[in-house]
Design brief:
The protein is mainly alpha-helical. The protein contains nine helices and no strands. The chain is 70% helix and 0% strand.
Length: 212
């Protein structure tokens, strides 16, 4: 059952900004890669750069929040020794070959996925800037094998992020559908249950607190 403190308001805002920025980057990126109409390249590039800056700034703020925010949650993403023991069990569970192992808020596979996404976003930012201003990134471009290879890395990384996003959405709706209302609407099932039990008079002390 989704609880209001599972995803504080600040975390939900960061999550929403990430979603919108990645969607904007994907749409404009596809157009820049292969224009499907005329006269919109300037707008697409401007939109792409704006979404990139928003995403990177949001990422920095989210990392800051994870370590120093009111409801800091960096520890929930930490990969500990016991997670290695549960990793194989988690893989077996997702392959329908075993039971769901006991884990915290995030299982080992989720932790690896989220940490990898952060790394991939950094790669996208670096390669994107190299494509945007190659004259200021000459050493990096040369070390990566030239602009064409940089463009390829940027393009393939986008597909990896898209694959993660699709998988993430699928897993949320199939594994924890109750979290969808919480993340996007701020509605927790624990609050709905209390309203029903209390005849609408009892409100959750956590609802709307925006905290974990």
């Amino acid at each position: 059952m989704a609880k209001a403190l599972d995803h504080p308001l600040a975390q939900r805002i960061y999550h929403g900004i990430n979603l919108l920025a990645i969607a904007g980057l994907t749409i404009t990126g596809f157009y820049i890669h292969r224009p499907f109409t005329e006269g919109a390249m300037g707008l697409a590039r401007s939109g792409h750069f704006l979404a990139m800056y928003i995403l990177l700034i949001n990422l920095v703020l989210r990392i800051y929040y994870a370590f120093l925010g009111k409801y800091k949650d960096a520890g929930e993403f930490s990969f500990r020794a016991k997670d290695w023991g549960n990793l194989w069990k988690t893989l077996k569970y997702y392959a329908f070959l075993g039971e769901h192992p006991v884990a915290g808020k995030y299982n080992p596979l989720q932790k690896l996925a989220y940490l990898t996404v952060v790394l991939l976003l950094v790669v996208q930012g670096i390669t994107g800037f190299a494509l945007y201003r190659p004259e200021l990134s000459a050493d990096l471009v040369v070390s990566l094998g030239g602009l064409q290879l940089v463009r390829t890395i940027h393009f393939l990384t986008m597909w990896v992020l898209l694959a993660f996003t699709v998988t993430h959405i699928y897993m949320v709706f199939t594994e924890t559908p109750d979290q969808v209302k919480l993340i996007f609407l701020g509605i927790a099932e624990e609050d709905e249950d209390r309203l029903v039990i209390g005849g609408g008079k009892e409100a959750s002390p956590h609802y709307g607190a925006g905290g974990r």
